[in-house]
Amino acid sequence: MSQAPLVTDQIPDRIPAPRRSLRGHPWLTLFSVAIGVMMVALDATIVAVANPAIQQHLGASLADVQWITNGYLLALAVALITAGKLGDRFGHRQTFLIGITGFALTSGLIGLSSSVAMVIALRVFQGLFGALLQPAALGLLRATFPAEKLNTAIGIWGAVIGASTAAGPIIGGLLVEHVNWQSVFFINVPVGAIALALGLLILKDIRAEKAPRSFDVPGIVLLSAGMFCLIWGLIKAPAWHWSSLSTWAFIGGAVLLFVVFALWETRSREPLIPLGLFRSVPLSAGTVLMVLMAFAFMGGLFFVTFYLQNVHGMSPVDSGVHLLPLTAMMIVASPVAGALITRFGPRIPLVGGMLFTTAAMIGMSRLTADSGTGTTSLWFALLGLGLAPVMVGATEVIVGNAPLELSGVAGGLQQAAMQVGGSLGTAVLGAVMAARVDNQLPGHWAAAGLPALPPEQAKQAADAVAVGVPPVPRGVPAQVAETITRVAHETFVSGMGLSFTVAAVVAACAAVVALFTKRGANASEGGGVHI
């Protein structure tokens, strides 16, 4: 009697592995969002190089040129947290794609603009669309990557931002010099098209089960108004001076609006920022750490460009090349920092990073007008080594300690903290520089045997020296011009040294704050919540 074949005989030796779709693939998601975020980070610095050409071509005033930058920064800072909430509500994929499309379109329209008013208006819209991108990118990374790989992903993401920000002056200088100022904006169109195509193909709509279903409109209005008053007050403080009633009216108004916002959030049924988030000591510490880090970094870097260009006489392209040690170290160290944070937690890398940053700031406080490339490169490289773990670790601490359904708001909070810190650092260190110049320039001027200046000319001379420009009148003898240049550069370097000393103290305080951070308690919620 024949035996019936076993069922197992009918099963093939190998079962083909299921084919993995491109959509939602973690590393491809990182690649896709990195291209979009790179465009925004590049734009933050590339436009500064084009401003003189825009001013000349469109007949813009100095105030107009300032608005080209300030309009963008204001819109970006004011909208970041609300943009994060939009991503939490409607999905980070949709928010990211809308941001990419809008940013690229407004960039192209700026390049076609025939008036400075049109450029300023479009720069505001560009900032609003840019605000949609960064929190959405972090939300996508948080929800796509498993917890054990999230820090590595954020490390690569941070390296892209750092490299793009530092590459802006180099790329901008080359484009303006060899093409035209419009090309600085036109370049975003093909980059945006590539990012949009990749996003449509790769990004997956990922939301938490408890995603918000409504909007806190009064909260959005109060927070946006408060952020506007704060950032605008900080932007205008150098021109209005810190003793001005206008400066403190805006800063005081911002504080009042934030207090009213906090009171409203305790009553709102579905608040824009649940204040319970800040019961997490690591999340609060991470937010403060981002503010302090940005204060020291962006405030200090503000003077480095003047030092390289106005004291050492470099072109914008050359000065960008001299910052490559900073960029290169951030590119190399950010993924490494992500791996270290994954293994050991964020506390030790964050404290170490801020101590390295402190040491770099102390080193740069001792630069002189004659310091060579080797010396500056050493401190720039050390600064990049210190910033890398902070950019990665503080981001993970903030986003990872927030619930998944608030990852967009947390991403917006992280970016807003950077904007506030950077604006505060530039304003405060600018005031330190101005005070130092006002205090020392008259003495240095007299000690060099130069004739005393009338009050109005003395004020103009101090304003020029505060950015490293020697106030040499036309037609003066070469020997006198050389003396004025030496006095101006020595006074500027003295002010820069004091500013970097203040930045070093702030960085040291940030190292203390970093002691209160720890790994994201909610990071394990990501990496698999798909709809």
UniProtKB/TrEMBL annotation:
CDD domains: MFS_MMR_MDR_like. InterPro entries: EmrB-like, MFS, MFS_dom, MFS_trans_sf. PROSITE patterns: MFS. Keywords: Antibiotic resistance, Cell membrane, Membrane, Transmembrane, Transmembrane helix, Transport. It is found in: Cell membrane. The keyword Transport applies. Gene3D superfamilies: MFS general substrate transporter like domains, Multidrug resistance protein D. The chain crosses the membrane at residues 27-50, 65-83, 95-114, 153-175, 181-203, 215-235, 247-264, 285-308, 320-341, 348-367, 379-404, 416-435, 496-516. Pfam families: MFS_1 (PF07690). It is a multi-pass membrane protein. Its main location: membrane. Residues 29-522 form the Major facilitator superfamily (MFS) profile domain. It comes from the Bacteria. This is MFS transporter. It comes from Streptantibioticus rubrisoli.
